[in-house]
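Loading example: each entry is read as two labelled lines plus one structure line.
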Amino acid sequence: MKLLVCISKTPDTTAKIAFNGDNTKLETAGITFIMNPYDEWYALVKAIEIQEKWGGSVSVLHVGPSENDSIIRKALAIGATDAYRIDTEAVSADQVAFQMASFIKQHAFDIIFTGKETIDYNGAEVGGRMAAQLNLPFISFASHLDIVAENEAIVKRDMEGGTETIQVNTPFVISAAKGMAEQRIPNMKGIMTAKSKPLNVVTPQEYSPKISIVSHELPPAKKAVQYIDPENMAELARLLREEAKVI
Amino acid sequence: MVLVFVETENGKVRKAALEAVYYGYLTAQKLGTSCEALLLGNAEDATSLGLYGATLVHQSDSISFNFFDTQVYSAAIAQAAKKLEASVVILSHSSNGKSLIGHIAYLLDAGSVSAAIDIPETDKGFSVRKGVYSSKALVNIEINTPIKVVSVLGNSLQISVIGSNVEVQPVALDVLQPGIKVLSVDKLQSNVTPLPEAERVVSGGRGLKGPENWGIVEELADVLHATTACSRPVSDADWRPHHEHVGQTGIAIRPNLYIAIGISGAIQHLAGVNNSKTIVVINKDPEAPFFKSANYGVVGDLFDVVPKLTAAIKNLNA
């Protein structure tokens, strides 16, 4: 099977977030960037598992400048076959989805994976936008994916208070959530071979983004915690009713 | 016109959909236009959408709507938006809404913002505020296209009744054949408010020591009419079902009240719950990082404290 995994670059989960002077951009000094965890742990590893069982290839696709190549090399070290980088800054979900779908249109992939969302803009929009542009089925928040025949998959999808089980034929777009696969750490052999795997640079299409960032702000500082005597839960109940007004 | 897509469950309008309608109403007020609702399939209480600001409910029914297929729903909603000349389309930021937003926006050639937490700013343009970096910051995003698509994060606004029942009117749409087949839908507890919609959440962590001890969590949740949740190690160990896991890899919630019992408060957990309006942390370790994010903290043995809190709330309610 020909599998494609779309990967994004995000600040590390533990990064301390601050913004530049006019609050339009993230202050990147001192921040470690990583592959978006859902793309890496679930989408990429699941695609590699399928390829190990069914053969074929796993390509990774990224929108970003060459400074992001280290993230792409990590995906190759974990086990992807080859990579494509669309050579432009990622500025919005609609722009990233448009660039990726325009590339995908020229190649025949059986399954196109994304993570369920990125941990920076938390939008969960890229998969749906690509599926619309490619006119393909889209299954979001998939926690299980089983290939049951060359062109047929059974997917479990998380929803409020339960799961849905879905049958779908390839090609389709799927966004991966926890449960799909277990994180893999690249080994030394993987890291060495990743250096010689193809990383193709793709010229971006003309596109003007449909949104723009006006400003960022940090949430208001939280008041210091108010400690309640563990022997006096009546006091906590009273505060929740009279002060916080939540019960 | 502002068009709100209304999600249903078991033949009734979902709570998240009422919030979306009220959000649509407030947005329409700002834009000096009307708010109308779109229902795909059936809901016995559809006329009541007028109570929260819809002036009309458009309804289309088809067997294709019996199960959720992103392509089928997106195509129908985009088609209705074009036909009814909507300038803004509002969705709930639910599991289905998250699937739909990008898809619909593409079909409408629209800019979109998901998980909005405030009514759009419309004084100059149309900008929407949402949480980013897993709720460590907020962003205001300007949508630059004639049609705008916005999804509303659950519990972002307090809804109130502002109107009366309205008419449900059929709208003719060309409905696609599903491209996927839903084989089964497994809902574990249908009588409990789903986590993303819950106003009160009681959550347990490793401090509970084992699944057999969850009774005290459930009893507290019961007296509060709260939904139960858990931390990642708890769902990883299968002490609790996966769909109860809140945090970065689980689901992100913003209830009015979040009570964390025996959860230390790792940054990945906080990413999913930090937006809760009031946070209570019960932990025997005074150094637990969660206390820094709490409004109320109780340093003590949860097996002793939690039943006392349950009894105190019972007393208060009596």
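The first strand of chain A starts at residue 2 and ends at 7.
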